[in-house]
Design a protein that fits this description.
- This protein is mainly β and about 240 residues long.
- Helices cover about 10% and strands about 55% of the residues.
- It contains 2 helices and 13 strands.
- The longest helix is centred in the first third of the chain and has 16 residues.
- The chain is elongated.
- The model has no long low-confidence stretch (mean pLDDT about 90).
């Protein structure tokens, strides 16, 4: 699947390049657009024992190169690059194997598998309160697709993007899980079993430089059989003034 998607990107990029014959610097500049967006992730297939936050804010920035497919320039093909950050806020903790405060695996979890688990109300006689817990993943993305621009500047975009994880971490704020009674803030980086590749379709609808967007990640955040198969449905707004 990964090789197939990579080949599709290369072929589409090559096809797009055929529309530009000896482009000038000015013509290239006019075909480039820079945009940014903010969104919230609705997390799908979350384990029943986990209570995710309603708003999971994220952001992305992208640059696109468009090539018209008709004389009026209403329909165009685009490809580009960008960076996007997704967050999963919840009241749970992330463990791998026996690495958790219980020092034992939950039922049905493999010895190398990652999983979410809830902290106990008390540990070593001390109350445990989770104030903040989140999983964050940042991707370098390659979007491509088609855009239709009406005469009144309303537009619709249908596309697909693939991306590679460049950063992942969890952040916890709350009571010391070892029961010391202190409040701590901890960050764990280079998490195990995070899938380094993601992909999915997206759509945008808008007017001039403003629009609404939706992206559904077809791939799971964790590798198959090595973690919960959660995936985000991202709903947001996008600004493309440049």
């Amino acid at each position: 699947m990964k090789r197939t998607l990579s080949l599709i990107i290369i072929l589409l990029a090559l096809a797009a390049s055929t529309y530009a014959q000896k482009p000038s610097v000015e013509s290239i500049r006019k075909k480039l657009s820079l945009g940014f967006g903010v969104f919230t992730d609705i997390w799908m297939k979350v384990p029943d024992s986990i209570n995710p936050r309603a708003i999971n804010q994220g952001f992305d920035v992208s640059i696109r190169y468009s090539s018209p497919l008709d004389k009026k320039g209403r329909m165009s093909f685009f490809f580009g690059g960008g960076i996007g950050a997704h967050n999963f806020y919840n009241q749970a903790l992330l463990g791998t194997g026996k690495y958790n405060i219980y020092e034992k695996l939950p039922a049905g979890v493999g010895p190398n598998e990652s999983y979410f688990y809830n902290a106990p109300p008390k540990f070593n006689g001390q109350k445990i309160e989770v104030k903040k817990s989140k999983l964050s993943i940042t991707y370098i993305d390659v979007p491509f697709g088609f855009k239709y621009m009406a005469s009144n500047k309303a537009h619709v975009t249908l596309g697909f993007k693939v991306g590679w994880s460049i950063n992942n971490h969890t952040k916890y704020k709350g009571s010391d899980l070892e029961g010391s009674g202190y409040e701590v803030t901890e960050k764990s980086i280079k998490l195990r079993n995070i899938d380094g590749f993601h992909y999915g379709p997206f759509a945008e609808i808008g007017y001039k430089w403003f629009g609404a967007s939706v992206f559904y990640q077809l791939s799971s955040v964790f590798e198959k059989d090595l973690g919960p198969q959660i995936r985000p449905l991202s709903l947001g707004i996008v600004f493309r003034p440049f």
